[in-house]
Amino acid sequence: MQKYKYVAVNLQKKKFTGYFIAENESHLARQLAEQNLYLISAKPVSDGTVNSFFTVSGRLKPGELTNFSRQFAIMVNSGVSILNTLSILKSQSFSGYFRRVLEVVYEDVKTGVMLSEAMKKHKRVFPEFFRSMVYVGEVSGALDKVLTSLADYYETDTAIKRKSKGAMIYPLLLLLMLVGIVVLMMVFVIPTFRNALDDLDIEMPALTMAIYNISDFFLQYWKELIIAVAAVAGIVWLLSMTQKGKYFFDMMRMKTPFIGKVNENLVTARFARGFGLLLSSGLDVLDAMEVICVVLGNRYVEKKFRAAIEDVRQGMSLTMAFETHRLFPDIL
Question: Which pLDDT belongs to residue 228?
Fold first, then answer.
C-alpha cells in the first residue's frame, strides 16, 4: 500500500486535495470515484505513517455539527447501531469535506475503534468538548441523550454568537461613521468655511484656529496619514497572529467598555451551559473544568480559568476559586 497526495475535482469542478492510502493510482481513482471525486493528479509520498485512512483539507460549514448530532441521536434512539448510523450519515447532504471526514470515522469504527477515539483524528471538526461528551455517552450507554444535548448546546451557542456579533457591530459602525464624518469635515467643509471667513478679515478664536490647523494637516499630509493607518493595521494584524498578540487582544476584548461586557456575558453563558452539561453527564468537577476550559473562546479567561483549576485541585472550593480570579459575575 502506498500513500498518495492527490488533487481531485467533484461534479461542480471544485478542487480538493488530500492524502489517501491505495495499492496504485487506479485503485486511488476508483476509491475517489466512490466519493464523487475525480482524480486529476496523484503523487506518492514517502511518509509511511498516517493518522487516518483518508484525510482531506477543508472547513466545516456553520450548523453542520448541530445537524449531525441531532440526526445521529435520532437514529441511535431508534435502535440503529453506531456503525450503520455513520454509514447513513456519511451519505447525507452535508458538505463534501464533512462527508469525507465521516467516511474516515466510519472506516475506523468498523475496525473496532470507539466513536470518540475515531473522532480524535479530526480535531478541527470535533472539538475536545464534543469528543469528551461522546465518550461519556458511549461509556454510560446514553449516547442518544448526550448527542441531543450537544445539538441543543451548539444550536444555542450559535444563536448567542450571532446576537453578540450584532450587538458589537452597531457601536463599531457608529464609530466608523463618526470618523468618516470628521474626515469629510476636515477635508471638504472646513476649508470652504475658512475661505469665506478669511474674506471677512476678522480675528478667529483659538478653537477655530486649532480646527483650521487640523484641517491643514489633513490636506497637507493625507498620503502620509493613509500610509500610517495602513502600517498600523498591518502591525496589528501581524501581532494578532502571534500567541502573545492573541492573548493581548483577547484581554482587550474583556476589558474594553461595552464590548467587554458583551464578551463577558458570552463567555459566562458558554461556561454555564457547557459545565452543566458535563456535570449532568457524569464527569466530576475537575474533569469537567479541564474540558470546558478549551471552549471558553478567550485566551485571557482561559489562563485565569486554568489557575482556578489548580486552586480547586489544591482543595479550594469552586466558588472561592472563581472569586479569587474574578472569572465570572457574582450571580454565577
Answer: 94
Q: How far apart are CA 39 and CA 35, in angstroms?
A: 11
CA-to-CA separations, 165 to 169, 171, 195, 250, 325, in angstroms, rounded? 6, 11, 44, 15, 26
Q: What is the pTM of this model?
A: 0.61
Q: What number is the average pLDDT over the span 251-277?
A: 87
| CB neighbours of residue 308 within 10 Å | 23
Answer yes or no: CATH 3.40.640.10 is held by domain 64-155: no
- At 100, the amino acid letter reads R
Neighbours of 217 (CB within 10 A): 13
Q: Burial code of 174-201, b = ≥16 C-beta within 10 A, e = fewer?
A: eeeeeeeeeeebbeeebbeebeeeeeee
Answer yes or no: is pLDDT of 230 > 90. Answer: yes
Given the candidates 3.10.20, 3.90.1200, 1.10.260, 3.30.1050, the CATH classification of the domain at 2-50 is 3.10.20
**248 membership: H or E segment, kind and range:** helix 243-255
For the chain, the domains span 2-50, 64-155
Three-class secondary structure of residue 268 per DSSP: helix
What pLDDT does 313 receive?
A: 92
